[in-house]
From TrEMBL:
Species the sequence originates in: Methyloceanibacter marginalis
TM segment ranges: none
Residue stretches making up the Alginate lyase domain: 369-648
Source domain of life: Bacteria
Protein name: Alginate lyase domain-containing protein
GO cellular component: periplasmic space
Amino acid sequence: MTFSEVRALKRESRESGLQAVRDTFVLYRIVGVDLYPPVAGQSRTNLQFILEHEEALPNCQKRYLVYRIFDQEEEQKIVALLERFGATYTVVPFDRSEYARIGFDLQSLPEPELLTGPTMDLLSVSERQRLLMSLHRSKANYVIHNNGAKNSVLREGRGLAKWVLPFDGTCFFTNQGWRQFMSDVQHKPYLKYFVVPMTRVASNEDLLSERVECNQSEEPQLVFRKDAAESFDEDFTYGRHSNVELFWRLQVAGEWDHYKDDAWDQQRRTLSEEARQFGVAGWVARLSSGVADQEIEDREQRSLAHTSAILSTLHALDASVAGTSKETLVSVRELVLDQERRSSDPKISHLIDLIQQTAEQALSRGPYSVVDKTTLPPSGCAQDYWHPAPYWWPNPDTPDGLPYVRRDGERIPGTSLFEPESDKYDRSRLQRVFDDSFVLAMAWQLTGNQVFADHAGNIFRRFFIAEESRMNPHLVYSQVRAGYNSNLGYSSGIIEMKDLYFYLDAVRILDRAGSISRREVEAFSAWLDAYLSWLMDSKQGRKERAAKNNHGTCYDLQVAAIASFLGRKETLYETLARAQSRIGSHFAADGSQPHELQRKTTQHYCCFNLQSWINLSELAMRWNVNFWTYNPPRGGSLKRGVRWFLGFRQSRWPFPQNDAFDQDRFLPIWFAARDRIGDLSPTGRPETAYEAKPLFHPHDGVRPFWNIGSFGSP
């Protein structure tokens, strides 16, 4: 500060009367949640250390804000501790229903397709983590709203003392640090702010010796004179420049001056009118986090570990609020299914009888294996999944028929599901695994007949577990166009695994039935882990992720279903955020689907994509993510998409549709939408989902017996 600036501040202090006011202080500590993976009661441990070992600070009140501890038992222990020491405190409770309504912050994306496109593959690990953190900004600001909590105590403290110290809950004053702080403040009482350097300690016990010295290894804390105009920016999230934003505005110099903003970061405010009106006073210690990764010296690695811990905390909280675990079924509502199992409603009984009959038919088929096909993929390995691109035929103008040529609408023999020659390839066999296993599992769930579960277990064992017959965990040879791409498959072939989501529910049920062993479930999880890695990292997988139409929807459905089964919450929530970011481009403002309307069978593809969104939305709801309430800043919404499509149920479809369309396909969409958004015009007949057609062609994307374990009685 210049001499004239100091002189002006001194004059202002005298004229306001504050210079004559005795220096009094109120020190607030924000006691918040333990980050995941939690060290049991670490916040409480640090609080107890403060209460037991920090001495009374002259002219200073100590107060505590217990801020949104979502573990009620832990909150009660913290409050009991504060009561035992006679501390003054306030509790801001965690409201689970309020938190449950908070969604992703997709408005932070600099471009709508960032999460789906190739840019994601160019980001470093740190950049990717910071991007994901920005998508959880509102969630973090509710649970760990450091700036909001500090501003609340700052407002209160201005009426209690001349100086307000809104500090983190891990701050500890040694006698030496406080004496130095008092001296520095008294030396320059005309300043409105003081920066308090912070020292990180590896062990709290080190502070008892009074031999700890200030090394300024952490971002400092800020002290406010009661008339200071500034406060913390509540849009900035804990873990991403939450304190630093005010340092920038006040021109507090430090390593943060070299921090770079990401494209998705919050915009910095302009320079404060009270910039440079600060001094440096004393020092404070930061108590141990109890987590080794967050105590390492390298700042970037420590920041990455900290961001990962915040995300893991939020993901664990979302799962807790939703009451979901990896064992939870994602395509079937278990409470509804249990009610239906015990129901005497003849419509439901008839549907259960039909499931049992269909399961009995499945008993005569399988078990299946990819080694059963009568032709081999280009690799020559029978355990590689193999299916040629259906519309590509041998070239009549070349001696070897290569490269193949496309005949739009004409399928190569064997590429239509369940036709006689389809045993040459694996597509029909894979669909039988999915459909038969699901129906068999549901039949066991509804009747208790172990025969059904055991047969599904044999299908599972031969297709995915047995070393000599299991499928290799990739789709490298799906939809091969001979003579192209080194005879490898194309990204579009990944959609052939689209129904994995309901098959994984079948596996969960078989595990409960005891028809597959714990060791086999672990082996299958390893298979899924390998397949997921291929799906996310291969060239085919990355290209399918970037698909702008139903292929992108079905890709996200696969990844989310696998992540849900494996309990990979970070992958799961990244996928659900990515899926939500697609909604504005999949649906126009009027609800139409521009990408699907480019096809020759527009009604089929609009219906299929919408059905796929409903399947994915059902999974997302299990994990406290609601696509139905999302309104993108550009484009349409899932609600509008439903209303637009259902508007053609009673009227002629005005777009190209080369094939016949099954009008019953409107029903799964109507009943699902009515369940989520309510105000839809009546369907007429059937009046209940139980009376509707229960089985559709697999190409339609409708789960077998979609109308049970879904909506319950109307």
